[in-house]
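Input (structure):
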């Protein structure tokens, strides 16, 4: 009987399947192929084949004979899109899934996309820089309305061989952003950016939040308060309190500044304004569950004019 033969060396991933097939073969030998077919709901040819293979090769004959590489069911045109998403856009499987659904109206599970990446031999995404361990925030906060908190910060970049300063404002709730480029990081640039924020954001600002940098001096605080807006300085050496704008700066580095080079300040300024529109109106956010900031803002305030 199959159960009384010696134990053969079977790969761990096949042991359960071989055990099941052994039980079926034992039942077929004892009661016949037709009763085994009715009991286990299998075709008689399959049971007969397993029985003959067991008689010739013992347990090794019941190891599944799957092909090493099954043909992919993903269409060729979709495979080309997947390759473009990984090589050119630098997307992982979850973001590629949303990109396919939104841009190309094609639906694929993230697991299938990841398997296709492996099958195509596409390189892994570059690993992120390891950060020093910090106490984890237990609950991600989010303000209940647009304008309740707007985080601002400055990012240093290069254009034409000189340092330039990207001033960024991001709404805590919708992730809608305002980006401006300045030649200097000082009080004058900060006040000009404050005016640009008030003009560009399509909703009233109730509170601004910034770090303790010298570009945000007392004169800036007084200007903000005179406009009827609250100002909050985050705790020293706690950039995580400005986490949304800091995270958006990482996106800028990965998807804008490292992919382009600029010969002049004016060229970088024009490109940054285009990138601002892409970020707000075209680039879907995983933090917003596949929506763009403009889509979330319009869903909340449909009467608002977002241009």
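Output (sequence):
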């Amino acid at each position: 009987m199959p159960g009384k033969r010696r134990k053969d060396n079977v790969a761990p991933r096949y042991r359960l399947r071989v055990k099941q097939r052994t039980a079926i073969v034992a039942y077929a030998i004892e009661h016949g192929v037709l009763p085994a077919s009715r009991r286990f709901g299998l075709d008689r040819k399959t049971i007969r084949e397993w029985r003959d293979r067991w008689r010739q090769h013992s347990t090794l004959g019941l190891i599944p004979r799957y092909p090493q590489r099954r043909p992919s069911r993903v269409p060729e045109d979709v495979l080309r899109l997947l390759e473009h998403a990984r090589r050119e856009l630098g997307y992982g499987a979850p973001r590629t899934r949303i990109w396919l659904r939104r841009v190309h109206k094609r639906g694929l599970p993230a697991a299938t996309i990841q398997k296709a990446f492996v099958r195509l031999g596409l390189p892994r995404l570059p690993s992120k820089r390891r950060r020093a361990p910090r106490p984890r925030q237990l609950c991600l906060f989010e303000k209940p309305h647009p304008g309740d908190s707007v985080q601002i910060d400055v990012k240093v970049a290069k254009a034409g061989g000189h340092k330039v300063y990207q001033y960024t404002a991001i709404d805590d709730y919708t992730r809608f952003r305002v980006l401006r480029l300045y030649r200097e990081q000082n009080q004058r640039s900060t006040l000009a950016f404050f005016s640009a924020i008030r003009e560009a954001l399509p909703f009233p600002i109730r509170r601004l939040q910034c770090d303790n940098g010298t570009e945000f001096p007392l004169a800036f605080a007084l200007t903000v308060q005179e406009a009827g807006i609250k100002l909050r300085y985050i705790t020293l050496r706690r950039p995580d309190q400005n986490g949304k704008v800091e995270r958006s700066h990482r996106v800028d580095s990965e998807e804008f500044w490292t992919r382009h080079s600029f010969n002049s300040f004016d060229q970088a300024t024009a490109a940054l304004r285009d990138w601002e529109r892409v970020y707000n109106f075209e680039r879907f956010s995983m933090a917003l569950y596949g929506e763009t900031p403009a889509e979330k803002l319009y869903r909340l305030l449909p009467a608002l004019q977002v241009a």
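Notes: The mean pLDDT is 89. The longest strand covers residues 150-159.
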